[in-house]
Design a protein that fits this description.
Blueprint (H helix, E strand, L loop, with lengths): L10 E5 L2 H6 L13 E7 L4 E8 L7 E8 L8 E5 L5 H17 L2
Antiparallel strand pairs: 1-2, 2-3, 3-4, 4-5
């Protein structure tokens, strides 16, 4: 099963996420080897960043986290959601993208 996300105008600047979808159904997520940083997408000349990661390491205590950052203000994200189950990750990423567009269109 291929997982696709419509990033619209977003530019993928880092991606180490999609291989996980292929392997996660066959192994427990805490048995897979992957890094904390999984995906980063910039929007509107880097005014907004969608960031996906696994926090904290080690894996068995972590969760996938999705952040939306405006103007590089990492201390005050516009959007933060987390979930341990990879099957919930794409809908959360899509919520983050929707957050960006709502904010951008209503500025």
């Amino acid at each position: 099963m291929e997982h696709q996300i419509d990033f619209r105008d977003g530019i993928v600047t880092y991606e180490n996420l999609f291989w996980l979808f292929k392997h996660a159904p066959h192994k427990a997520i805490d048995q897979l080897e992957f890094e904390e940083d999984l995906l980063q997408v910039s929007f509107f000349d880097e005014k907004y960043i969608l960031d996906v990661g696994w926090y904290p390491n080690p894996r068995k205590n972590g969760k996938f986290k999705v952040y939306v950052i405006e103007n590089y203000d990492w201390e005050n994200p516009l959007f933060t959601r987390s979930h341990r189950d990879i099957n919930h990750l794409i809908p959360i990423i899509e919520q983050g993208i929707n957050c960006i567009y709502k904010k951008y269109l209503h500025r």
